Structures are given as C-alpha cells and as structure tokens.
C-alpha cells in the first residue's frame, strides 16, 4: 500500500465516522453505543490486558457514575425522591442550558466520586491476586447492583428516570454520538500516552511478575491504584451519559449490568487481543456488529447465541485477533507492544 | 435496623432465625461440596454451579407436574444433572482443564449465561416452586415454626457428605480422584485415566448441585436468573472452609445460612442478596489483609 492510498482511506474512514449519525439517522443510538463499547473495552484492558488484573467489577464505576449524574441532574432542580419511578416517575423538562449545565456538573461529580471510590476500594481489593481478584470484583459488581435495587432514594428496583433531553438544535442521538465518539477518542489518546510512558512499563511489569516488580523498587500498589482510577474516571463519564441516552436507569439491567456490559467488556478486549492498544477497539467493533445482527436475526435466542459466542471465543480464541495476527507475522510488529502503527 | 428492637423484645424470635438459617445453610453446603471437589481436583472455579442448581430445581419441578412426589426429585435431579455435567465436560470443560484460571472462570461464566438463557427460553422466566406438603413443625409454644422440608435437607446433606467421604476413600474411582488431586502427572504415570477422572469429578459436582436444586425448589423458589448467588455462596463456603475439608464445608455452610438469615431480617429481605455478595468481598479482603501482614497473599 502506498501512502496516498492510505491517506485516502484514513480520510474516508474519518469522514464516515464523523458523518455516520447524519447518514444513518435510524441507527444513531446503536452507533453511539458502538463508541461506548470501544470505551468499555479500552478501559477494561488497562487492568485486564496491560496489568494482568482481570476485573469483572469495572461495571461498578459505570453504574455509580450513572446514578450520581442522574441524581445531581435531578437534585439541582427538583427533589430526587419524587422523581423516581417508585414515586410515580413524573417526567421533567429542562431548558437546553439547564440541561447541559446539570449534565456537566453531574458527570464531573460522578467522575470525582468514582475516582475516590477506586482509591478506597483499591486499597483493599487490589491486594488480591489472580482469580481471587476476579471473583472478588465479580461479587463487588453484583453487590452494588443489589444495593441500588434496594435503595428507595434511588427508586429501588423500579428505577430512576433521567431528565428528558431538550430537543432544540440537535436531537439526543446526535448529541450523545459525538459525546461518546469524543470520549472514546480521548481515552484512546490518553491510554496511548500512558502506555508509552513509564506507567505502561510499570503496569506491564506488574503483569509479568508482581513480586519481582516490587523488589525492583516499583511502588506496585500506587501504579495499580492509578490504573484502576483511570478506568474508573472514563467509566464514570461514560456511565453518566449512557443513563441519559437510555433515559431510564434500571439498577440491574442498565446501571450495574454485570451479565451484559460487564462481561462484554472483558469479551471484547479478549476478542480483539488483550494487552494491545488497538485490540479492544477492533474487538469492540466486531462484537457490537455481531451482537446487533444477533438481535435482528435471532430474536428471542440472541442471548443464548451470545453465551455460545463467549464460550467459543474464550475456549478457542483466547489470544484474540491481534494476538493471532502477531503470531502469524511477528516481524511486522517488531518488539513493540502496541498493535498497529507501521509508518 | 428497626427489627433489632424486635429481636431484643422477643428472644424466641432469635431462635427462629437461628434454626431457620442453620437449616438453610445445610442446603448451601451441599452445593459447596461439589465446588470444593472440582476446585481441588481440577483447579477450576466453576461459575456454572448456580445454574446446575437451578436446572436441578427445574427437573424436580417438572417431575412434580407429572404427579410424582417432589422428594423423589432429589435422586432423579442428581442423576439427570450427572448426565448434563458429563456432557458439559465432554463439550467444553476438558479443553480448559490445563489452561490458566482466568480462562476457566470466563468459560464457565459463559456456560452459566448460556444455561440461564436456555432455561429462560425453555421453562419461562416465572418464579416457581414445588411444594412437598410436608407441613410445618412448631416448637416452643408454637413460637418457632420450621418447615419440615428443611430437616429433610439437613439429613440429605449429612448423608450425602458421609457417602461422599466413603466414596472418595473406598471406591476405586474415588481413590483415583484423590490421586489425581494430589498430582495429575503422577496419576497419569500410574495408569490412571485422568480424563475420565475429571469427567467423573465434574459430573459428580453437577449431580450434587442437582440434588441441591431439588431441595431449593421445595424449600424456596427458583427462576432462571437466580443461579449466580448459589455459586457465590458455594465459593464463599469453600474459601472459609478450605479445600478438601468436608466437615469444614458443613460448618461454614451452616454459619453462612445463619448469618444470612439474620442479615435479611435486620436489613430487610431486599438487601439479603446484597449482604451475600458484600460478605464475599469482605471475607476475601479480610483474609488477604491478614496474610498481607505476613507478606503473603491468597493463593
């Protein structure tokens, strides 16, 4: 491939990505969710792929961010409790300025809370290793969902309705498409920077041999906590917006959706190739499209098919797409850790 | 916490919760036997545990629809699940026995999602139970009421535990299982077909879960998506008791049942599941913290 062709391809893809919600207005939500999926896979890979800490509980930050955002959005203008579904679930309409202001404030407080939560939880949980960490975080994710579905202030099991999106200049789908696109892009750039720094080498050292890394003088706990906080930050920002995109927060199916989003993020990273920068992006894209096709063509059995897909990927394809490519053509990758980039 | 005052005012209520909880714990311990077995022998943490329990419950439920007394479901479910477990091993598990633990956790998680959805499609998502009509036992001037089925459950757990120990000690295949647990390589060199040992172990685990499920459907209720909590309970019991300690499993199971019952009463039943999952996190962090003082970690 010569350079002109590459440039044309890159520009074409860029335009397609930017114009997608305008070209396919019926699929705006699905397209926005595609970028959410990319983000989920990327943030999971910080811990699971690069650091070797396979977390099933990252969904906690997603859910906490979502609830915090919604509560702040409500609380700025109304009494939260009156607007839960439990108390009748009255709809509320804000002006565009109020909406954006409250959304921004809600996202910021959600992100802050999640970082604090990651540091606090990390102090106890990040000391666990291997499968104990995996099971512990699995329990954490479900515990959070169960607590949310028992907590009356948040509407308990019947959920919480987020404020309606004021459809003036642009509609909800377009707004959140660009939001998730920018968020995914920012997280990609940030992670790329972090992995190229000392931080990336340190967490890879933790993955390869934690005891050795510690005895070489690395403050492993500090690096582990930072890694978890970074995922928590992006997950909170994603969760808060996802709640508004869906418009209704169900504790088990939307916020702390362990069996769906929580597992998918692991699966997407593995499918693409964990421990690589591009792997989660590719895995998320392929997974999301496959899953949407399942919904369309296997109605009723789509979740059965998904379970089957998980088993097949994990058992037969644990190295992922990029891992497989790297095995086939190792010389194309040199010694680099990132998946792509040949200029 | 309003209920705390109630407990202080009426001490007999404490007794009710305690007996009820201990007997419930016996049911959890039965499934935990299986998890300890699979974990100890095959080094696999079987997330599918809970789905096997629910599947066993459905077998008993459909048996009771046929007009057969649900108590017969205990052996029938065990037998049916033995076959299911053998099939699952032959299809998937044998490929992941030697792989790292994360792969096996994720793969069994996938099987558990698959089974949940299959049950949802085949049996429907309704909350169901099979009433054994064994009546209720009243104690202490009728202040304490315990469903008789729970005593049956305790008996089943103890008898199964004894049989399991005898099986592992005396029978040929039981000895092979213990040999494989000690060293799979050495066992293979001694001419033991470890693949068959693993298949038997996994199927035996499924059978134990099936019997558990049969008791669950008679005592409480089942629906396709309730399985995971039984996995977590088994896991917790096994970590507290340690691998290869069946008596410890029973004690830990009874303890968990009682603790859960009190928590459900004090915090409200809507938080009972939350308590179980939080307890898992707390136990793991606490044990790791204790080990951390000796510069060790949970392995």
Provide a descriptive summary of the structure in words:
The complex is a heterodimer of chains A (343) and B (299). With 343 residues, chain A is an all-alpha fold. Chain A has 14 helices and two strands; from the N terminus they run αααααβααααβααααα. In chain A, helix 2 packs across helix 12 (279-297). The two termini of chain B are 37 Å apart. In chain B, a hairpin with a 4-residue loop joins strand 1 (136-139) and strand 2 (144-147). Chain B is mainly alpha-helical and 299 residues long. Chain B has a two-stranded antiparallel ribbon. Chain B has one domain (2-269). Chain B is globular, with a radius of gyration of 19 Å. Chain B contains twelve helices and two strands; from the N terminus they run H-H-H-H-H-E-E-H-H-H-H-H-H-H. The mean pLDDT of chain B is 87. Chain A binds chain B through residues 54, 124-125, 127-132, 134-136, 138-140, 142-143, 146-147, 149-150, 156-157, 259, 263, 266-267, 270, 300-301, 303-304, 306-308, 310-311, 314-315, 318, and chain B through 45, 92, 95-96, 99, 101-103, 105-107, 109-111, 113-118, 120-121, 228, 232, 235, 268, 270-271, 273-274, 277-278, 280-281, 284-285, 288-289, 292, 297-299.
Low-confidence stretches of chain B: none
Number of separate domains of chain A: 1
Number of strands of chain A: 2
Which structural class do the helices and strands of chain B define?
mainly alpha
Calculate the mean pLDDT score of chain B and round it: 87
Sequence of strands across the biggest β-sheet of chain A: 1-2
Structural class of chain A: mainly alpha
Strand order across the largest sheet of chain B: 1-2
Q: Over all CA atoms, what is the radius of gyration of chain A?
A: 20 Å
- What is the chain-wise order of helices and strands of chain B? HHHHHEEHHHHHHH
Using only CA atoms, what is the Rg of chain B?
A: 19 Å
Helix content of chain A: over 70%
Shape of chain A from CA axes? globular
Largest sheet of chain B: 2 strands, antiparallel
Strand content of chain A: under 5%
